[in-house]
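Hi,

I'm pasting everything inline rather than attaching a file, because the server keeps stripping attachments. The sequence lines come first, and each chain or strand is labelled.
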Amino acid sequence: MGRTINVGFIGNPNCGKTTLFNAYTGANLKVANWPGVTVEKKEGRTTYEGEEYNLIDLPGIYSLSSYTMEEKVSRECVLSDEVDVIVDVADASSLERNLYLTLQLIELGKPVILALNMMDIVEERGMEIDLHRLPEMLGIPVIPVSARKKTGLSILMHAVAHHHSYGSQGPLIHHHHTGRSVRHKHNHHQEYAMVYQDSIEDKIDLLIERITSTYPDFTNKRWLAIKYLEKDSSVKDFWPMDISDILDRSYEKEIINQKYDFIEEIISETLVNKSTKEERTDRIDRYLTGKYTGLPIFLAIMALVFFLTFFVGDFLKGYFEIALEAFSELAAGAMAALHAGDMITSLVVDGIISGVGGILTFLPNIFILFLALAFLEDSGYMSRVAFVMDDIMSGLGLSGRAFIPLLLGFGCSVPAIMASRALEHRKDRMKTILITPFMSCSARLPIYVLFSSMFFGKYAMAVCYSMYLLGIAVAILTAFILSKIDGSKSEHALLIELPEYKTPNARTIAIYVWEKVKDYLTRAGTIIFLASVIMWILLNFGPTGYVTDISISFGSYIGKFIVPLFRPLGLGYWQIIVALIAGIAAKEVVVSSCGVLFGIQNIATAQGMGTALTALNSIGFGMANAYALMVFCLLYVPCTATIATIHREVGSRKTTALFVLFQLGTAWVVSFLFYQGLSLVL
Amino acid sequence: MVLKEGKNHHTYKVLSIHIEPQLERRLEALGLTEGSLIMILNNGKKGALTARFRGTRFALGKRIADNIEIGEVWTDGKND
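And the predicted assembly:
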């Protein structure tokens, strides 16, 4: 067995690259971030004919210039020793645009294999691609695959295995006739797929001469020369060279245009029966992006998502509760049988099982929410949302694209904040990061479900839904006020691909949802477990040692100290304050802490809720208080994981602290308004 | 005329792009080069519009749509 071969998977967004990557690696992924930036890096392993392959899933990009972080990361990775062979995944049904990246990759000089994905769609539309002529014109192997139907996978690996040893491309048998040039003196058509106009080729020759004397060891001098011609900023920084006598300006525009000229030539020679009829996607889009229908349909879809999350989720939650109750009885019985002391029994049953188990019962709700988000993402609808919302978002000084992080925020703030990277302007990004935590994440769901079921009976679902709307309203209002303050004309310009609609892929969805559920379970097992134990300690120990009356515990002293600050919000109860502080670890902890604080086992069950309601009523905590609490939980300091992500994205402790303080302040003000208002009405 | 003034389901030719160089390069990298064809799909709203070029649909914000100069295409007679 030889050494491991590193294969970089690269391609345009929405070309099915991740589906293809998953088809090889399954869920056995190593997900990390690229060093220094929060661009996701996925790696997985596969074997073919006894050789080990390390597959790297690079970010989806349209070109290899260095305008975005994704592009920079991909280019650096492909150029480095991290990648031996490049698999360029292209959507065969929109070959014209996908080939641009292909031409750039070929220019890099590493072995490239073109995987033509979605060939089934090409056939469906009655188009044909000349698979003999295409590799001839490009000078690289072209393998038709279908990631969804899993066809062509082994042939692709075969090509990778046999192509990686060719350091550079062999001579090409290709004669393309642009009609504009007489053969260049070096006749580069024998060596390179992409040959430019003579005036540019002359400059490339001059630059290569200069590079040869300045950087004699650089392997692909032609690529470097082209980058100089484009005045590529990172190339100029990495390999500085005085070329003022050769270049008077940037030739990037010509280089791009000529690449597309060549692509047009390729398309006209290899694509038969270019489809012209209105496709299914266009018919669907007439409604989903329609002037009058777009927004109502979006709102209806969101309502359906929440209906499924609450209604179906709650139905399944019932079974989880029965299991939890049985388990905690079993545990209590086992502890008694083992003659464990009161203290240990209390730690296990009241602390751990009640805390962690209380969170686990919400798994069905979380599962359904993420399933719905995965459907929206994988079907191609998400980018339509950006278009539909662009007019409204423009009014807030944001791009419609900023709505995608906000929508993802319903799932979890961490990936949502990371998704704000797609926004080009820093100001837009900062604004989006600031308001994303106001979108109600799934961890806050247990709080609403618990308190609304306890206090609002049959209106519980409406109360839950109102939290989501309030979150959106606060986010929008904040963005609006900020845009008035900085008075900025919106710099943004929406630019987003609207991919072909497709039936979501079961495997892609399964992997997506499993990752989120695993994350939730891991949190329940780590942060929430730890928080539950710490809570139990704080509540069962006081200045006098182990106490059974929590009102003289450390926790109660801390809570009581802050009570005056929270009295105007109707939250002046030390137990609630302790639960809120604990909730900074993770929002679900508010629920588990309430169980521990009020001494209720399995608070999320019907019986537990009854007991909790009695306990809360006895201290004067009513409907207005419950609503104020939910509002506060919606808006206050995001969880530790989110704060860490904000810090990483904004790169400044001061700004992070300001953001957190702003959110805390907003929570206080809005809860105050709601509590005072509701107290008058209820 | 500019792209924002175009009619639904009509194909136009891109004459020039007047926008900051970085965004212009990005549009060009996506295939929206001078002389390329662009078909407007949905230009009903006040701001952004959707269009297809080089075989792919895109949503383009108003600022982009207002700054792309386009012309009619007469050759293939498809504009009906």
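Strands of chain B lie at 11-17, 37-42, 49-53, 56-60, 68-72.

If the labels don't parse on your end, tell me and I'll reformat.
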